[in-house]
Amino acid sequence: MASGAAASKATTTLKPKTLLLIGDSLSAEYGLKRGSGWVALLEQRLAAEQLPVTVINASSSGDTTSGGRSRLGGLLAQHRPTHVIIELGANDALRGLPLQLTKDNLNQMTQAAQKAGARVLLIGMQVPPNYGQDHAARFAALFAAVAKSNKAALVPFLLKNVADLPDSTALFQSDRIHPREEAQPIMLDNVWPELKKLLQ
User: Fold this and answer.
1) How far apart are CA 155 and CA 190, in angstroms?
2) Which of 33, 122, 155, 187 could be a cystine partner for 38, CB 3.0 to 4.6 Å?
3) What domain range is 178 assigned to?
4) What is the pLDDT of residue 129?
């Protein structure tokens, strides 16, 4: 009886999954050689851990939450993912878009993915202090609010231990916006614990 249950559990664990990632340049290998970004490293880690997950990276440099929201329906219909990672919001902040618009778009995307049967992981971002402490705090908080209200998983800050170091410029490309290749494993390590829980 016990061995049958264990076998059944193993079968469930190994059931193939499809992970759709909808993000911006931080997930689209902007300025990096192909295969060195954190999403490519994620695929390598999934293979190393023998987790049968197909990763669809639908990230697009420059994308906003509005752009992602408009693309998501077609991606869900095409790929029928079991899991969705939403990594958007940084470009909303850079363009000075209203926080409520960002929040509404993330809410709609999370709910659309969940209605399609996918488990959702939201990846949060932060803006530099020069945007104003109040604005920065409210921007960071909106990701947690969306995750909580929709019972979705959350990575609070994709660039933890990258952008918040005393001398972070060494980990960024010359534009000081996009992380270098050396930062990509750190970004994956920020995402991995929450994603692994979601996949199990």
Assistant:
1) 7
2) 187
3) 16-199
4) 74
Percent of the chain residues topping a pLDDT of 70: 93
The pLDDT tens digits for 41-74 are 999 999 999 999 999 999 999 999 999 999 999 9
Out of 25, 27, 63, 83, pick the active-site residue.
Answer: 25
- Calpha distance 133→140 (Å, rounded): 11
Q: Is 175 a catalytic residue?
A: yes
How many domains is the chain built from? 1
CATH number at residue 171: 3.40.50.1110
- In the structure encoding, which two tokens stand for residue 129, read together? 């202090």
8 catalytically annotated = no
Catalytic residue among 66, 168, 178, 189: 178
25 is catalytic: yes
Residue from 26, 19, 25 nearest 43 by CA: 19
φ, ψ of residue 4 to 5 degrees: the values are -65, -40
Question: In which band, very low, low, confident or very high, does the pLDDT at 187 lie, cut at 50, 70 and 90?
Answer: very high
Which two three-digit tokens encode residue 173? Answer: 């490309």
The pTM of this model reads 0.91
